[in-house]
Amino acid sequence: MKRAIALVDCNNFYVSCERLFQPKLEGKPVVVLSNNDGCVVSRSQEVKDLGMKMAAPWYQMKALAKRHGIVAFSSNYALYADISNRVMSLLSSFSPQQEVYSIDESFLELTGMPGSHAEYGQLMRHTIRQCVGIPVCVGIAPSKTLAKLANHVAKNNLQYNSVCDFNSMDEHELDALLATIEVGEVWGVGRRTSPKLQEIGIRSVLDLKRAPAKRLRASFSVVFERIVSELNGVACLELDDVPHDKQQIICSRSFGTLTSGLDDLEQAAIAYTTRAVEKLRQQKSIASALHIYIRTSPHREQDRQYQQGILVPLDEPSDDTRAFCKAALHGLRQIYRPGYAYQKVGVMLADIVPANERPRTLFDDDAARERSQSLMNALDHINRRMGSGTLKLLGEGTKQNLAMRNDLRSRRYTTEWDGLLVCNC
DNA sequence: TCTGGGGTCCTAGGACCC
DNA sequence: TCTGGGGTCCTAGGACCC
Questions:
Q1: 3-class SS shares of chain A: helix, strand, coil, % to 5
Q2: Are residues A21 and A72 in the same domain?
Q3: By percentage, how much of chain A surpasses pLDDT 90?
C-alpha cells in the first residue's frame, strides 16, 4: 500500500489571522512584523507580488509600503496561538495520526484511507475555511519532504485549487514537475547549501532526486542522504505525534532602545530567566545549567562590538526561578563590560531532564524542596489566573526601560475580555 | 532611529583516558 | 631523546527550520 502523508499549511498565517477580524483587508496588501517591529515575518500574496522579501527590515520597506498602501501589524502572538489551536484541533478529526509541526503546519497520516485523497484534502480545506476562517493549502505525497513540495506546488499553481496529490501522478508527470522547482525549495536545503549544489550542477529538485546520495553525504552531511531518499518516495522521517520535551529552553529579546547600563541588563536577564523557568515547569522538567549571553547590535558597524556568553552550572538540578535568577545575575556580572551599547540579552536553560528523574544526593533537603515547590506552584497559579507577570521577583523591576516597540498591534480578540469585538446593533 | 525569537541536528576539534 | 592509536565526551559553531 502506498504511503500517503498530508501536509496542511495555513496561507500567510499571521496575515490571515489579522484579516479574520478585519475582513476589509481581504485583497489588500498586509504584513505582520516581528518583535520591535523589526522585520517582515508574514506577507499577504499582494505583498509577495510586490517583491517584498521574507525577513526584510521594516524600516527599509517603509517607502514601498507607503507607495502601495501596505497595512502593517505588530505581531500579536496571543491571537495567533489561539487561532492555531483551533485549526489544529479541527484537523485532528481528519486523521488518527497528526503531527503539529509548527504554529501553522500539520502533518496528517492518510495511508490506507479509502477514496480520493485530493477530495479529502478539499474537505479539510473547506472545513477549516468555514469553521475557523483561515485559508490553507494541502500537499499529499509518500514522504514528508515530498509532502512539503506538494504543498509548495498547491500554493503556487492555481490549477491545483490549493490541494496537490503527488500520489495521483505517474512517475513521468511528477519528475517533469520536480524539474521545474528550484533545489532551494527542498526542505533542509537552505541559502548556504543551495548555491553549493548549483555549482555542482544540481539545480532542480529532480537533479537532487537523481543525485548520488552517498557522494552528497560525503560533501555535505548525512542529512542529504536522507533528503535524497525522501525525494525518491522512501519515507525516512516518521510522524511525531507526541510532542516531546524541549532539550533546551531559550528566552531572548532585542531591546526597543540600546542600553549600556548593567541595571537594565540585570532587569532583562531576570525577566527572561523567569519566563524560561516557567516554560521549564510547564513541561515538568528540571535543568542543571543556565547559559546567559549579551551582545551589541551587529548591524551598527560604526559601534564597538562585543558579545559574550557564559554557562553557569547550578548546585543541583532545579525548577526554582530564584536559583536560576541567581545564576543568571552571577553570569551576567562576569561577562558584562561597561561602555558598550547592548542590543540583546538571552538566557538558555540546558541539561534538561524530567522532574521525576531527579537524581538523589547525600545532601538532599526535602523540606526546602517542598517549600520551593509550593512557592513556585503558587506563582504559576496566580500568573495563569490573573495574567502573566502579575506576580514576579523584585529584581525584574517595574519600569519598562527596554520595552519593545509594538505600536501596530491588533487587539487580543479571542483571549482577553477587552479585546472582544462588540457589535453595535 | 529602526535588522526577530525559539528550536534542532550535525560536525570538527580539543581534552582526556587507556 | 624518541613520542601511538583509538575511543569517548564535551563544546562551539554552522546550517537549517518556522
A1: 45, 20, 35
A2: yes
A3: 72
